[in-house]
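Aim 2, interim progress: modelling of the pyridoxal-5'-phosphate-bound target.
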Amino acid sequence: MAAFGTVFMPKMALATFENNQWSTSEIVDSDSIQLHPGAHVLHYSSTCFEGLKAFKHADGSVHIFRFDQNLNRFDQSSRLLSLPDIDQSQVSQMILDIVSQYSNDIPEPPGSMYIRPTHIGTEAAIGKAAAPSINSMLYVLISPVGDYFAGGAKPLRVLLDETGMRCAPHMGMIKSGGNYASALGPIIAAKNDVQADQILFCPNGDVQETGAANFLLIDGNEIITKALDSSFLHGVTRSSILTLAADLGMKVTETQLSVEELLQLAAKPGVEAALSGTAAVLTSVGTLIHNDKEHTVGSGEHGPITQKLRQALNDIQWGKAPDTHNWLTRVK
Ligand SMILES: *Cc1c(COP(=O)(O)O)cnc(C)c1O
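Predicted structure of the complex, ligand included:
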C-alpha cells in the first residue's frame, strides 16, 4: 500500500488573498500551483497547515471529526505567523466542497480521507525577512489513507532528549513547516545512533512532545500528560483522548512531568505510554532511551488501556458509538 499522505485526489479547493481580500474559492487541479520563486514562504517560511479526517459510516454518511477545533487552530496559526487572517466560514465551505466532491472515494474504516488545509505567504519579496507577506494562498488537499497499523506496528522506541528542543518555544503551538524542519536533524541522528523511531523532546528535563505527536502516560486508572502552555502543539487527539478517559472514569492529570518522574513511572508494571495525533490516533511507546540506557515501559508491549482508548475514539469516528460530545460534522 502507498505510504501515508502520498496519494491525492486530482482536484483541490483554492483561494488567494490579494489586494486585501480573499478571492472566491475555486476547485483546481491538485498537482501544481503557480508560485513566484521569490515567494515569501520559500524564503521566510510563512506557512501553516492543518490535519483532520473525514470518515465514512456504514450507512454511507460522511463525517468530519472535530472540524471546529482544527479550523480554530488554523486561524490561530495564521495569526501567530502574521499571515493574512483566514475567513473561517470560507475555509469551512472549501473543506466541505472538496470532501463532498470525493465522498465516493473515502476509504471505509479503518481508512479515512485525510484533509490538509495549507496557508502560505506568496508575496514575491525577498527583502521581507522581517515583514509579513501581504498576499497569500490557501488550499485544501485531500488524501485517502488506510489503516496506520496495517502490518502490525510494533511499540515505538523513543529517545528522550533533554538538551535540544523541537522548535523555538514561541513557535510551539503553531502548526508550521519550519518547526518540522528544525526537528529533523536530531530525529535523523536518533534513528541512526540508537535506532529510535522518534525523539521525545524534554527541554530542561520537562517532558514535552515528539516531532509531530503529543505524549501520554497511563498509570492504572490515571492518564498523565503535560499541561497546555504555548511551547508545544495542542493536539486535538490529545484533548479528545483526555475527554474519553474521563468518560471512562479515569483520573486525568495535566501537569509538568520531569524525565526523572517519567522513568520512575515507566518502570512500574502495567504502566503504558503512547503518542497521540490525527494520523495514527494513539501509538504505543514500548521503550524509552535515555543516556544510552534502554527503559522498557511496563511490559514493553501494546497496552490494553491504550487500545481501549483508541477503540473508544475510533468507535465515535466510525459511527459505532454515540457521538456524545458532538465531535462529528456531517458532510453528506
Ligand atoms: C499535529 C501535531 C500534533 C497532534 O495534533 P492532532 O491535532 O492531535 O493531530 C502534536 N504535535 C505536533 C508537533 C503536531 O504537529
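Residues 51, 175, 209, 212-214, 233, 235-238, 276-278 surround pyridoxal-5'-phosphate (CB under 6 Å). The chain has two domains: 11-145, 156-317.
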